[in-house]
Amino acid sequence: MWREYINAITIEEALKTLAENKNNAKIVAGATDLILEMESGAHKGVDVLVDVSRIPGLDKITLDEDNVIHLGPMVTHNHCVASKLIRERALPLLQASWEVGSPQIRNRGTISGNLITGSPANDTISPLMALGAELVLRSSNDERVVRLEEFYTGVRRTVIQPDEMLVDIRFPAMSENQRGVYLKFALRRAQAISLVNVAMVLTFNGEIVSNAFITLGSVAKTIIHAEAAERYLEGKVLTSEVLEQAARFASDASTPIDDIRGSAAYRKEIVRVVTLRGLMAIADGKEEENIPQEPILLWGNRTATPSELSQQTRHDGLKPIETTINGKHYELQSGQEKTLLRLIREDAGLIGTKEGCAEGECGACTVFLDGVAVMSCLVPAPRAHGAEIVTVEGLSKDGELSKLQQAFVDEAAVQCGYCTPGFLMSATKLLEERDRPTQDEIKQAVTGNLCRCTGYYKIISAIELASER
Ligand SMILES: Cc1cc2nc3c(=O)[nH]c(=O)nc-3n(C[C@H](O)[C@H](O)[C@H](O)COP(=O)(O)OP(=O)(O)OC[C@H]3O[C@@H](n4cnc5c(N)ncnc54)[C@H](O)[C@@H]3O)c2cc1C
Ligand code: FES
Ligand code: FES
Question: What is this structure's pTM?
């Protein structure tokens, strides 16, 4: 899929490679979009990938002295979900990050990647627009700041240039007199694209709304402001009549299309309903209701920090991928142009990890990369260089099944067994994260894993049994 894969360790190195290879190089962050787009032939001519995930410090979320929040370019959805600062000062962004895919996708997918892919259905664009975000774009000889509203020129089209890297996402932290919420409406509860999404941030002077931002996703070519609703709310108290009228204005602002997920008329009505729900949640002080207090991350008992590299590495077929799998050192000469899933199976010969869908949907390929659960079908193989991988073969010790594996046997949670390695990996991380998870937490943990045989009851019982034992 690529001729050359570079693991950069400074931003300068990454920018230099982009400048040298203008139209045939691309940055790769979590690769959850890029790998599938490259497979489908969407980036013809691109054969150099610059991985920025090993550059130290890019996964930080900070608040500066002017009360501005900064997200580094490697901040993932789960970094936002886990952040106290984002919960307290940018709740709509946390709620949007929580809605993305599954835990494994949230562990790799970044906010930067989500903004740059730029699908109008993407979750984090509308909250960041409602929060007034700006993007800092840097090339080897320039830096510019672009308001998020001005970043998009059409469906999946942005103003970023091939030699530019997004190095900072910044927006004012919400203050005490501001309230906000993000709501997504989709056809299922996880791993689903927005049919409609709505973000809102309202500023209050006592009970009166002094300022309102309402943004709508998946209802136009790019994320849009519901301007008439925003203007209408200014100077108003949130009575039920006001909420209903504002929701109607929001619906009028949307210009959705008919597609396989819903008709335009249906989407317009859903904009009204979801906007009304959001405004009601704010009016009732119930904005936090759709998000668990301590969401499951599948980080286990650690934080999500990538393993460090001492120098930039260039994989062009000559340099082996040196990696640790299940505690054993591997030096793999072949496989640098593959996914990590294929590298593990075909080059390292560990076939416990399964390929179900090869597009991040089924979880059969779940492994731990630098300690957190990820979909290995969406990880480029050279990302494993200098990293730590654990596969299902690493769960048993000295030939003895782990407590969880034994519980799967005892509860008959396995039929054909194809999905089982993935479930075991997700549940192993869950049990590191929580001694006695609730049923809801177990469900959160396995939202990225599909089983076609057992139904999920026995799998959930097995995880409960292992936690009891
Ligand atoms: C199964 C599945 C489910 C998903 N569910 C959802 C969902 O529910 N909601 C949703 O919004 N998205 C979803 N996604 C899409 C995807 O996971 C997100 O868009 C993710 O945030 C992309 O981030 P990434 O780090 O993986 O980007 P990458 O794939 O690494 O990159 C995406 C694009 O951004 C560019 N890029 C990345 N970082 C930079 C940078 N710093 N500077 C310049 N260019 C950069 C890359 O060159 C590439 O063009 C899903 C994807 C999958 C596979
Ligand atoms: S999620 Fe990777 S194979 Fe299905
Ligand atoms: S046991 Fe067959 S797919 Fe889950």
Answer: 0.98
